[in-house]
Design a protein that fits this description.
heterodimer, A: about 75% helix, about 0% strand, globular, B: alpha/beta, six-stranded mixed sheet
Amino acid sequence: MSSLDAAQPARVLVTRRLAFLAAVVAIALLPLVFTDTYWRTNLIVCAINVMLAIGLDFVLGYAGQLNLGQSAFYGLGAYASTLLIMRLGVPFWIAFAAAVAFAGAAGIVLSLFAMRLRGHYLAVASLGFAVITYQVLLNWISLTQGPLGIYAIPPPPALALPGLPAIGFRNLANLFYLVAGCALLSYALLDQLIRSPIGEALTAIREDEVSAAALGINGAAWKVFAFGVGSAVAGAAGCFYAAFVGTLVPDAFFITESFTILAMVVVGGMGTLIGPVWGAILLTLLPEVLRGIGDLRLVVYGAALTLVVLFMPGGIAQAARLVLARLRPERQPELLR
Amino acid sequence: MSAVLAADQPAPAASLLLRAEGLSKNFGGVRAVRDISLSVPAGAIFAVIGPNGAGKSTLLNLLSGIFRPDAGTVTFGGVDLTPLPAHRRARHGIARTFQKIRLFRHLTALDNVVAGFHIHCRIPAWQYVVHGAAFRKNHARCREEAARLLAFMGLERRLHVEAGALSYGERRMLEIARALATAPRLLMVDEPAAGLNAAEVEALLERLQMLRRQGLTILIVEHNMDLVMTVADRVLVIDYGQHLFEGPPAAVQAHPGVIAAYLGGAAQ
């Protein structure tokens, strides 16, 4: 038993709670450190991208389904909530819930393809889904106003807690708290699912679907579940995007967005949940940091991506593990056991 | 082990656990399995043998539901399983291993076996999100029982090793441990001795016999006749996808058709 994990869960639980607390503190402090509009804007974009990346990682890194449709779910969430708010006057949070459900349902529709297709074939089918969604957003002008876009989308309504001054979301710091809080909540939700028997089932499907079936695991049902959850999280990110930017054009959800999100997951390290968080932050901020070198930044950005995939296929998560093992050699035997 | 293999399973020796009738499967023009019937008594070790390419693995895939038969039926414990896919059949108590080992290569030995407990997980749905007492109890129980199964298969020192890093023989044992985690009534092993050394084969046979004594029914697919003769109660011989002979091991060795199939044709 001593080799099993009699004492370990308690220690792991403490570590996880400390990490969660650290994330809360970091979120609380960031807007206080970065007080200008430019950096606060970047922070919010980071939080949105974190949601997109962890949502994709749930489908790609855990269930092993190569999904290139994440930009579509992102866009469907953004347009669904915005149209409900602007056309039908639905309150923001109800529109938010509806858009999350709508994006999740779209994910379930795509998962019906995932039941029949694998690997590259699913990648092509999901890419097709993203192309179709983009074309619909672009060409259904009576509904979406197509390339003209939707303007003057209001931010989320101010939060009025009894006994406190109202918290308005025109203030970028408050908006960051809202989006980052939701990102943290999504992370916690996915993390709990992954550490439960659901995570074990998804991983089994990723590793070998036939033997998973031989163990009684219903591959089709769990793929539907994974797609539903992953795209619902992307839908939530889309709602915040629309409310944050205030304008909506289909180009924001072009298929290249799917590849950007994929790059965040791969650079961060798929199959770990924390990796894509760092991947999303890095790939959001890197182009901004490199702005000083003008158009050369895209070359540096591309080169950095290539180098990571070439020399660090496990991404940031793998690199962190290697560094930790070197810093704490006394724990190495345990890791290698 | 007794906790893993439910105590109420052993049926009277004479009763049938698995029955297949008229199973056929074609792949394009290849008739891999042609009209094969078999009856596996509860509590027996039932062997299916035949030369390479005889259709043994295809037959196993038809029984476990990986393939749908073109014709024929599969009945298990009185229930018609023919229309059910593999994952539903596993829930009825059929577990299997694969000729070409199919482990979850990037998971540890322990996590491979824990995945086998999936169908026995009984916790309230909300505890998947908010892990409570029932979740923790289930988590601990699965890991303890997985460790016990691994110890039974001789892998107690390899719990935290990735399956891909295990030796070939260890992988075969791990695959059996993982199959046992589903608490099956029937364990089907596809060429479990392939690639094992003599000592490992010995250990494998010992464990299969131990499992049988605990009431587990075992269907073993092999092309190594010597191995089958020492453990099997009943042997089905197939060749070119067809039923050749079925009977006790001693009768199989004496059967001219079987000898011909193995040594290359009756004409010689």
